[in-house]
Design a protein that fits this description.
Elements (H helix, E strand, L loop, with lengths): L1 H11 L6 H16 L4 H28 L42 H12 L7 E4 L24 H5 L16 H14 L9 H15 L10 E2 L1 H6 L31 H8 L16 H13 L13 H4 L13 H4 L14 H5 L15 H4 L24 H11 L12 E2 L2 H8 L17 E2 L13 H11 L4 E6 L5 E6 H17 L2 E3 L2 E3 L6 E5 L5 H14 L2 E5 L11 H9 L4 E4 L1 H6 L18 E4 L22 E8 L5 E7 H15 L6 E4 L6 H14 L2 E4 L2 H6 L3 H9 L3 E4 L1 H9 L14 E4 L7 H12 L9 E7 L3 E5 L14 E8 H5 L13 E5 L3 E2 L4 E5 L14 E6 L6 E2 L3 H8 L31 E9 L5 E6 L3 E4 L2 E4 H9 L7 E13 L2 E10 L5 H19 L3 E7 L14 H10 L6 E4 L1 H4 L5 E2 L29 H4 L10 E3 L16 H11 L4 E6 L5 E6 H18 L7 E5 L4 H13 L2 E5 L7 H14 L4 E4 L1 H7 ...
Helix pairs in contact: 1-3, 2-3, 7-31, 17-18, 17-23, 18-19, 22-23, 26-27, 35-36, 36-37, 41-42, 45-47, 51-52
Length: about 1800
């Protein structure tokens, strides 16, 4: 009330408030909008301020209320109805299943607590007990407990929430009786459509909860974005939409047929479009403007609690253009990235570059494969003006939606969290189950078992069912046993007792003689064998005859559902049950056999998971011979009679074995409790194969010789009142129904006039234990009391497959025995207390109460107790909810074949008190307490308590129970609340599934509903948000996932109910295909890892400060940090050296100019072939000898000098495809003393996005001239290129093939420290940078590589890399000239055309050493996965390969290399030879696996420790383990340390830090860097602040760690069985023990028959040395910092890729501290929404992170550069600029 009234106050009386209160209110509002206070705190303070004024306001409201007409939520009846309950105001109130009235839960928590406490102390006996004798007031039993307080009736907020279309004409004065009844009737018409479990008081409660929330200033939720094609398919897209905008959102892939393999789809299609200078971003959602205007009109009329949603109306169109929200500066990922878009002018002027308006550049061209070229960044050219929040059509931009999401998730600004987290499992477990100190505790005494009455068997009752059938079959053979109706309601066939007996005997005889062939052997069925009964639901007669045929033969029937098709609700689980029961024979009817799914040969198809069955038809069987007597068979009472299947919460199917004794005892107990007599007629609407339907209609009916009329489900759907008409027609005395049937019967008003229920003495409600049943029973009684229905005929019962009938309200309630059977009970209980497992009577006006009806008393001869549902079976207190357990002679015996589960369910011995826990410190373990009796009790699976007078109250089931953060919620209660949110317009009432899934150690509530086809996107979204609010306010639990599926999409059970287990299974495996999804992890997940307290006072001023840890900025932490947990393991400082370069030959000791080396080679070995270029077929395209290269280089130098007027030191841009021209041009520049810059040419099919990058590098590198070949020059000047860049603005372009007039005068002599070339590349973060490589660095690098890789002129090396930057450029261009070996060059784009090109080249040329990129490895793995046999036939043999180095600037991709090795092992590839290298901007080659290096060491580290910058080694397969491989061996002359990137302190071995490198071949500084240069000043001259502070290092920008490990040559990176030595060492072992280990190791390997010496040359003494392995974890720029922890995108992406088979690729990034996950869907668009919950669950479970936005896109959208690295920042920019054309964008709440 308070918040709502405050809202009214805010509108009406703000002016009358004192000015100081108004000021305080304004301050509060400001604090909330700034995020300095939580929503809860805001409301608390606001309520406190307004409390004095509210008192007055409420008094006025009450005055007004008396004069207002009653709201439309009450059942208004004619006043002459004798059974009505009139309250003071003359409003007639109908009783309901759920009574929540008047109080809205927005009181400050302190007040709530006081009011609750007073309630909790009420004794539980206050549950009302009313006898069924007519009451003095003439009221209906239990009604007085439910009368709402008068104050609620005219609540002003209440009036406003009225539905506009249902109740329009409310007169200001109270209407007359006749108008009231008319109004009631019209409402019934509205709700006619399948309105299950209609419950008006609950609706009232929900309306009030929503009204209260309406007053809160809650920001609107951003609606998910859908592509129009997805909208069209989801229910709710109206056809009258303007479709003109839809064409634009069709992805280009769909426009053109994809004919050529070489060209990716999006490139071909671009040619078809006229070259426009500006590409309009495709339109995202189809905004339903016409519809919205219409909607807005409605919304104004109804003042329903609808908030403003992002798309409502065209308000968005009127909004002035507004730029992106400013980025918070704290966000690391966003500050370093380039501007989101830049203003593209056609002229590239110098001024533009000064302003740094560049594209985020990309070097992704010349890749024509589908996979990679599709991903060319197409998200860069957005003009600044297009970045408003809304585009021309009034559609909201992604960025605006995210801003909206952030506002919705407003939290107070957090202080920075400490470094270390407690994210171990125990902590998470505790956080998931918090102990609430204010939770109510049970206060009653321990309960005593309740005994049912003595079982008195009527004198003439037959001894067994077989005897009964024989008796009635002989003596009264003409009397009817069963009648069945056809779907039209006509009686088709009636089975008499005589016919039943003869048919059952025929079946028994046939089964005793029939020989079934089981494989080679012949089998007959013996007594005790199990058979399946497969009959459709409309054929109970065949089922009953087969059942009794089995009984006569002593067989054990197992009735199962009919599999309608092999793809039907998976019958696999049933198959497991059939197999475990060893069933080989299935009995069925002829019609049913015809309907079974058939295979192509016409035989019955084998169903998935089922054993091979013999089908036996039970019709048209021969008569048994005269001497065949079924009475001769004697079967033990303890033998199994039948097996009934049941499913558990997870969907596993189990068989419950029922003994013959239990079966007959249960029938006798039912006979007594229901007062059955011979010749009665029962109408049965239930499933006759199991539970209540089977026990009453098939078994007990035969025992008593009764007549059963069966109504099939199909008829009930057509004519819901058919069962009442049958009762009238047959004057039936008993009827078996569910509350659903009562409800449907109520709705069929037109059939009511001819109905008479006077003959009915028992209306058994089979699901009376369900909280819903109360309202159905009450309403049914209200309406049909006039038709003769007696109030004591309604008999709710509670039952379960394990216990059978648990309790039953006796019909007639006659108190013949001393047992008080006349009482019936109601309880208005506090739902909050129930969630803590405690019974508390709630005040009737509470919004969160639950009204229960009793389920009668314990069955005759049974004894019942209530025990704790978890842990030891201790007896509950009288006011405690627990699991009901029963002992009697009539319960199930066991779960077939499952002994462990049987013991815990069927053999429970309740204890009086808790078993004592053993004392701490290994004290004596107390003996277990004595059970209350020797008898075994059976768990029923029902949760409840025993009320006064032995009445049984059930408030839920074990399967429907959801324990969320320590509190228990019942799925049925949540369904009732969901249904009360005005559902008829949006969803189908009966079609809701509620279940919980376990994510991050706690259960999360999921609600799935079927959406109506005429419900629009926006309406359904608003309905969903209202459901969230209602459930939150009434149950105090958050819904984790709310999904709407199209009509009829939820899996059904054979009787039309929802198959809950199957719905849950489909949801979890991602095959439910919802039309709308709303995930709310931000609000639900409360057990994320918490910060650990940092100990105070352990601070000394020693200088060890920052060497202790990485990421901590406190410099006052001293040596004591070892205890604190800062230096957790080991104290060796992380430093490592490559071997000395000094061992090289004399000539190479001092650096030389590479030009000098080339001239020397041209003179000494002119005809030595140094380069060979291969074409796509693997044939030699061109070769180059030393002298040819020298001559061409001279010619090009002359050309540059003569035509280009190039002086030494000038910059020349070389734009060439990978090949020999590039080499010649490069050396030509060096000969002249010019400085070359190699640039990848633009992609001919994707000029628009790739050309600006080329142009930018030309400009940024200050190139005075461009050198290229004719095809590329044509491309640069083409008309397509002109649309992007004006050809006139290029610097002079020279063709390399032009001939100069004069020769080069002489080769320029330059100093070693002058620049040799500029190396430009784009980082994965989209940062373009150029580094300066001097001749000295170049020479040192070549010397180092030559030494490590043992490169000599006689060697052949195959290269399949991009030759534009980094190590790829060095290998392609420089090292071949330096060491003189033969380089075989393969352009990577040729491999895309012919995937086997690279491997066949290795085999054909017997290559020992090869270098390639990850892109090539991935291409081979994917494209050749099925081609290994054909490669073998072509004699491809990879045994020759000694080293295969994958060149990368990232963490080695372990899984990819392992897949590659495993795949090509069959071709002789030695898995040990595949390794990776590591280089970066500041040094192109830090680690490379040498020719004779040991294989790469592999370690497993703890992912959770990595988040906190610690390195903890774990065993392989440990939870949270991550496999890392060292990145090759350190090159000679290289020194590496690990430093803290923030404090620049030296890290220890066990810490993650930045890799710093010192080497003669480090680059010589940045030439230029795109973006802010100030951050990068120390990249080349960083110094430590501790230790050797004078040494200079270059910072690589990569995080990693060092491990001292042994060189071993025995194992391989693929040998997963033995962990490598590195992972076997425990972290605390000292170096002495390691060197000892190493000594033993070398002795054994050299002493015995050494296998190691055979691999890769002789074993040097070096091979057994300890060496330091470098492990790269990820780029510092890419680290995602969330909640104080550091995550590497690749780890999150790997988890996401595993979560669903249809995810082709994925990338993650952060935006304004929200984690955004982009997934490519390789499947149908209808599957897009399946991914949202799975992605959210997986990231939460594996990384404890909440995903903010899930974006589902088409394959090929995630951009990948030429090195195979994801360009996440480009993707982010494209996402924010609305250029991804996503299929679906989900904003998680």
């Amino acid at each position: 009330m308070s918040a709502m009234a405050a809202n009214f106050l805010g509108m009406d009386l703000v002016s009358s408030l004192p000015s100081d209160v108004r000021e305080k209110l304004a301050e509060l509002d400001l604090e909330l909008s700034e995020g300095d206070i939580t929503q809860k705190g805001y409301e608390k303070k606001r309520t406190k301020l307004l409390q004095p004024f509210l008192k007055k306001q409420e008094l006025n409201d009450v005055e007004k209320a008396k004069n207002l007409p009653p709201p439309p939520y009450y059942n208004i009846k004619e006043s002459n109805n004798s059974n009505s309950n009139v309250n003071n105001d003359g409003v007639i109130v109908s009783s309901e299943g759920y009574s929540y009235v008047t109080e809205v839960p927005s009181l400050p928590s302190s007040q709530q607590r006081h009011s609750k406490k007073s309630d909790f102390h009420q004794p539980s006996s206050a549950i009302s007990i009313s006898s069924s004798t007519p009451q003095s007031e003439g009221g209906v039993p239990g009604y007085e407990n439910m009368r709402p307080q008068g104050g609620a009736v005219g609540d002003p907020g209440y009036q406003n929430t009225r539905e506009p279309n249902t109740f329009q004409n409310h007169a200001p004065h109270p209407p007359t009786n006749s108008s009231q009844s008319r109004q009631r009737r019209t409402q019934r018409k509205v709700t006619h459509n399948e309105k299950r479990y209609h419950s008006e008081v609950r609706q009232e409660a929900v309306q009030q909860a929503l009204a209260a929330l309406k007053g809160r200033p809650k920001p609107s939720l951003p609606m998910p974005s859908k592509r129009s094609s997805v909208l069209n398919r989801s229910p709710g897209c109206n056809d009258e939409l303007d479709s003109s905008s839809d064409d634009e959102s069709i992805p280009e892939e769909l426009i053109s047929p994809d004919k050529e393999y070489n060209y990716p789809r999006d490139h071909i299609s671009k040619n078809m479009q006229p070259p426009e200078p500006i590409i309009k971003p495709p339109i995202r959602e189809s905004s339903m403007i016409a519809q919205q205007q219409h909607l807005r009109h409605d919304v104004k009329q109804s003042q329903a609690p609808i908030q403003k949603y992002s798309l409502s109306g065209s308000a968005a169109e009127r909004r002035p253009p507004q730029n992106l929200p400013p980025l918070p500066t704290s966000d690391t990922s966003s500050t370093e990235s380039p501007p989101i878009g830049y203003k593209r002018d056609n002229e590239f002027t110098d001024k533009a570059y000064k302003q740094k308006h560049f594209n985020a550049p990309d070097i992704t061209q010349f890749n024509n494969a589908h996979r990679i070229a599709d991903r060319v960044t197409r998200y860069v050219n957005v003009s600044q003006t297009e970045l408003n929040e809304t585009d021309a059509n009034g559609k909201w931009k992604v960025s605006a939606k995210i801003q909206q999401l952030l506002n919705t998730l407003k939290r107070p600004k957090r202080r920075p969290l400490p470094e270390f987290y407690e994210d171990n499992d125990i902590e998470l477990e505790i956080a998931a189950n918090p102990k609430d100190p204010n939770a109510p505790k049970p206060e009653g005494s321990t309960m005593t078992p309740v005994q049912g009455e003595q079982l008195s068997i009527p004198a003439g009752l037959p001894r067994t069912l077989e005897c009964a059938l024989q008796r009635y079959g002989m003596n009264s053979f003409k009397s009817s046993m069963a009648t069945v109706l056809d779907p039209n309601g006509k009686i088709t066939t009636t089975l008499t007792y005589g016919k039943l007996l003869s048919r059952a005997q025929k079946i028994a005889y046939a089964l005793s003689t029939k020989i079934f062939s089981k494989g080679p052997e012949q089998v007959t069925l013996k007594p005790g064998d199990r058979v399946a009964l497969v009959y459709p639901n409309n054929d109970p007669l065949s089922f009953i005859t087969a059942w009794y045929g089995c009984m006569f033969r002593g067989l054990v029937p197992l009735p199962i559902e009919l599999p309608l098709s092999s793809s039907d609700t998976p019958p696999q689980q049933v198959g497991f049950l059939l197999s475990s029961c060893a069933i080989t024979v299935a009995l069925t009817s002829e019609a049913c056999l015809k309907g079974l799914p058939k295979s192509a040969t016409g035989e019955i198809a084998k169903l998935k998971g089922w054993p091979r069955l013999q089908w036996f038809v039970t019709e048209h069987l021969p008569k048994p011979p005269k001497d065949f007597n079924v009475g001769n068979l004697r079967v033990e009472d303890t033998a199994a009679a039948y097996i009934e299947y049941t499913t558990d919460k997870e969907g596993s199917v189990m068989g419950i074995t029922v003994s013959r004794a239990a079966m007959i005892n249960h029938c006798r107990a039912l006979t007594m409790a229901c007062h059955y007599t011979e010749g009665e007629t029962i109408v049965c609407v239930l499933d006759f194969k199991r539970e209540v339907g089977l026990w009453h209609a098939v078994l007990t009916s035969i025992l008593n010789g009764m007549h059963v009329v069966f109504i099939p489900y199909a008829l009930m759907k057509l004519r819901p009142s058919s069962w009442m008409q049958l009762i009238t027609k047959h004057r039936a005395s008993c009827c078996l129904v569910k509350s659903r049937d009562l409800h449907w019967g109520l709705l069929a008003t037109k059939d009511h006039k001819d109905i008479s229920l006077a003959s009915l003495r028992m209306l058994l409600v089979a699901d009376g234990a369900n909280p819903w049943s109360l309202s159905s029973c009450d309403q049914f009684l209200n309406v049909f009391q006039a038709k003769g229905l007696r109030s004591d005929a309604i008999c709710p019962c509670a039952s379960s497959s394990e216990v059978f009938t648990v309790s039953l309200r006796r019909p007639g309630r006659s108190s013949t025995t001393g047992f008080c059977q006349s009482a019936t009970g109601r309880g208005v209980l506090s739902m909050a207390a129930l969630s803590h497992g405690v019974v508390r009577v709630d005040s009737e006006d509470s919004l969160t109460s639950l009204t229960l009806q009793d389920c009668g008393q314990v069955m005759p001869a049974a004894q019942m107790v209530v025990v704790r549902s978890e842990g030891a079976p201790v007896l509950c207190k009288t006011d405690q909810v627990g699991e009901i357990c029963v002992t009697s002679g009539s319960t199930g015996a066991s779960y077939f074949g499952l002994d462990g589960m049987t013991n815990s369910t069927f053999r429970v011995q309740p204890l009086l008190e808790d078993p004592e826990q053993p004392k701490d410190g290994g004290g004596t373990i107390a003996s277990t307490p004595k059970p209350i009796s020797e008898e075994y009790y059976v768990r029923s699976g029902l949760l409840g308590f025993l009320g006064p007078g032995g009445l049984v109250f059930v408030c839920g089931s074990r399967d429907g129970l959801m324990t969320v953060t320590g509190r228990k919620h019942n799925a049925d209660d949540i369904i009732a609340t969901v249904l009360a949110v005005e559902p008829m317009r949006f969803i189908y009432r009966g079609r809701i599934a509620v279940f919980s899934i376990k994510v991050l150690r706690d259960e999360r509530v999921c609600v799935i509903a079927e959406q109506r086809p005429d419900c629009s996107e926006e309406e359904s979204f608003q309905w969903m948000s209202r459901v969230l609010q209602a459930v939150d306010s009434i149950h105090q639990v958050g819904i984790y996932c709310l999904a709407l599926v199209p009509p009829n999409h939820l899996p059904k059970t054979p009787l039309g109910g929802i198959h809950l287990c199957e719905a849950r299974r489909r949801f979890l495996e991602g095959s439910l295909h919802p039309a709308n999804v709303l995930m709310c992890p931000h609000t639900c997940v409360t057990n994320l890892p918490k910060p650990r307290e940092l100990h105070q006072g352990v601070q000394t001023t020693a200088k060890l400060s920052s060497s202790s840890g990485c990421g901590i900025t406190d410099t006052g932490v001293g040596p004591a940090s070892v205890m604190v947990g800062n230096l957790v393991q080991g104290n060796r400082l992380a430093v490592a050296h490559g071997r000395d370069v000094g061992m090289a030959e004399d000539g190479e000791r001092k650096p030389q100019l590479i030009t000098g080396v080339l001239r020397w080679r041209a003179n000494t070995s002119p005809d030595h072939i140094i380069f060979t270029l291969l074409n796509a077929k693997g044939a030699i395209a061109k070769t180059l000898t030393c002298s040819e290269l020298h001559k061409r280089a001279e010619k090009i130098a002359a050309l540059l000098q003569e035509r280009g007027k190039i002086e030494p030191g000038d910059h020349v841009a070389l734009i060439f495809p990978p090949g020999l021209d590039l080499l010649c041009a490069f050396y030509g520049c060096l000969y002249l003393g010019a400085i070359p810059i190699t640039i990848r040419p633009p992609h001919p099919q994707n000029l628009i996005t790739t050309l600006p990058t080329v142009r930018m590098i030309v400009d940024v590198s200050k190139s005075g001239i461009v050198l290229s070949i004719q095809p590329i020059i044509k491309l640069l000047k083409s008309r397509e290129a002109a649309s992007s860049i004006d050809p006139k603005t290029w610097p002079p372009i020279l063709d390399i093939d032009d001939n100069p007039k004069r020769k080069l005068a002489g080769i320029a002599t330059v100093s070693l420290d002058s620049s040799a070339y500029l190396d430009f590349s784009v980082s994965t973060c989209g940062r373009l940078s150029g580094v300066n490589i001097t001749h000295r660095s170049l020479s040192s690098l070549c010397a180092s590589l030559k030494l490590a890789c043992e490169l000599y002129p006689s060697r052949h090396v195959a290269l399949c890399l991009d030759p534009y930057c980094g190590l790829g450029f060095v290998m392609w261009t420089l090292i071949g000239v330096y060491s003189g070996h033969h380089s075989i060059l393969i352009a990577p784009y040729e491999v895309e055309a012919n995937p086997s090109l690279w491997l066949s080249t290795l085999s054909q040329h017997r290559v020992r050493d090869t270098f390639c990129s990850y892109g090539v490895i991935e291409l081979c793995t994917k494209a050749l996965s099925n081609s290994v046999p054909s490669l073998k036939q072509r004699n491809v043999d990879l045994r020759c390969v000694r080293t295969c180095v994958v060149v990368g600037e990232e963490r080695p991709r372990v899984t990819l290399t392992q897949q590659f090795c495993k795949l090509f092992q069959g071709l002789g590839l030695n898995t040990r030879c595949v390794s990776t290298s590591f280089g970066c901007r500041v040094n192109p080659a830090i680690c490379v696996q040498g020719a004779s290096s040991a294989e790469s060491a592999q370690v497993y580290v703890d992912l959770r420790a990595l988040r906190n910058n610690r390195v903890a080694l774990v065993e392989r397969g440990a939870p949270n383990s991550l496999c890392l491989i060292e990145s090759g061996k350190l090159l000679p002359g290289v020194k590496v340390i690990i430093a803290n990137p923030e404090t620049k302190g030296h890290c220890g071995d066990s810490h993650l830090g930045e890799i710093w490198v010192q080497a003669p071949h480090n680059a010589n500084g940045y030439f230029t860097i795109y973006g802010d240069e100030t951050d990068y000043n120390d990249h080349f001259n960083a110094k430590l602040v501790t230790g050797a502070t004078s040494e200079m290092y270059a910072r690589t920008g990569y995080l990693g760690f060092l491990r001292r490990t042994e060189c071993s040559q025995a194992a391989s990176i693929l040998d997963e069985t033995t962990p490598s030595v590195a992972s076997r060492d425990s972290d605390t072992e000292s170096l002495n023990s390691m060197s000892q280990l190493q000594l033993n190791f070398s002795n054994t390997s050299l002493g015995g028959n050494s296998e190691h010496s055979l691999v890769g040359g002789a074993v040097n003494s070096n091979d057994q040395e300890l060496h330091d392995a470098v492990y790269v974890v990820g780029a510092l720029d890419e680290v995602i910092s969330l909640r104080g922890m550091n995550y590497h995108p690749i780890d999150i992406e790997n988890s996401v890729l595993r979560c669903h088979k249809k995810i082709a690729e994925c990338a993650v990034f952060t935006w304004t501290n929200l984690l955004v996950v982009v997934v490519e869907l390789d499947g149908n668009e209808s599957e897009a929404l399946d991914l949202v919950p799975l992605v959210t669950n997986t990231v939460l479970e594996e990384h404890q992170l909440i995903v903010g936005v899930v974006v589902v896109v088409d394959p090929g959208v995630v951009p990948i550069n030429s090195r195979g690295e994801k360009q996440r920042m480009h993707l982010r920019d494209g996402f924010l600029a609305d250029q991804l054309d996503p299929i679906y964008v989900a904003y998680n709440m």
